[in-house]
Design a protein that fits this description.
The protein has about 450 residues and is an alpha/beta fold. It has 16 helices and 19 strands. A 7-stranded antiparallel sheet has the order 13-12-1-5-3-17-18. A 6-stranded parallel sheet has the order 7-6-11-10-9-8. The chain has a 4-stranded mixed sheet with strand order 16-14-15-19.
Amino acid sequence: MSEVTATDLYEVTMALSYLREDMRAPATFSLFVRDLPPGRGFLVAAGLEPALDRLSRFRVGHPDVEEFAEALRRPVEDLEPLHGLFFEGQVRAVPEGRLVFAGEPLLEVTAPLPQAQLVETCLLSFLCHQTAVASKAARCVLAAAGRPLVDFSLRRTHGPEAGMQAARLCALVGFAGTSNIAAAHRYDIPAVGTMAHSYIETFASEERAFRAFARTHPGPVTLLVDTYDTDRGVVTAARVLEGLGLGPGCAIRLDSGDLGALARRARAVLDEAGLREVRIVASGGLDEYGVDRLVREGAPIDVFAVGTKVGTAADAPYLDAAYKLVEYDGRPVMKLSSAKVTAPGPKQVFRGPGLRDVIGLADDEPPEGTEPLLRTVMRDGRRTKPPDTLDAARARFEADVAALPEEARSIGRPAPPLPAVSSRLAALTAAVRRRVEARALEEGDGR
């Protein structure tokens, strides 16, 4: 599948019309989230790095033109104006790992109009999915209150590439490892895993299964104890670990049932056997809500393994995001549709202490004590610096989370901060609205 033709049809029809009409002046589009999903006190900006990779190699080749023509059922010659088009614009964006809120641009593109239009779908696809998953994973980190988390999402994500993204995003917000071997290799993340219930079932007894696994993997092992009777499984695991002299670094894994009660009973059995260093890993349909409940109950769980609900951002699997034109050929523009009004002009977000943000125009003077969030990451179609690292993104995330107001950190009923709007942006919005409404009135009168 071509990276260029993986787009919506209307991007192609609009770009072709712009070229035919010789509308190639610079256009600025702003990508933002209108409203945070329910149950979210913040979003974690993510997806920028792979999006920049895509933009840096974006070029319409002849095979792409042929696919466009086939989709439109038109002669290839009609689509030839698109041949050779590549991205040569500027991108200003919030670096990965920063926390963002409703109405704040995650990214702004300024490029010749046909180019800026044609990259819309891929940018929304990259940033929306990855920001949603990163934000879900970040809430798990808050809920875990310092306990390690590992990513088990690959088998339930919406395709292998989504699983790769989930592993990367979990690492970005501080997860300790992933079950995804390919992601562990690509992103230098520790690979983690145990065994399946089917492994236990193939042996004549649970004890034989545990001993066989320990023989194959003589280092620290994690034994899955809930295939049959969990309490008995814990006793058997303790006997095997103690008999083999395996303790430090080893663990048992609970994957079903009342995890809090089971963990307390398991801890007692392990401690009585002198296996105080053997950890308890919990999995099985967990997300931030389940993790938060277990932590608040004081369950003696050392590691949380989360998968399905985090890799799919199950309770908020999409963002109400938009990629809207805010300026064309130096003229600020805006949309006035009911409930979908946009603010005109290229923008900047100025962040103050406590994540108090002001959304302003890109050329506003920064308010005292603030820093601009959007940075120029691409100019003339080329990155302005080498690709960012997960370590750098994680450091930004940790710094922003540390400054996040307590009410926004809440797992149950978060209250996100509301960004302010600069006086210049408010004045421009009012002026453009008057201009647009006056023009609409004239056209309605037939003048």
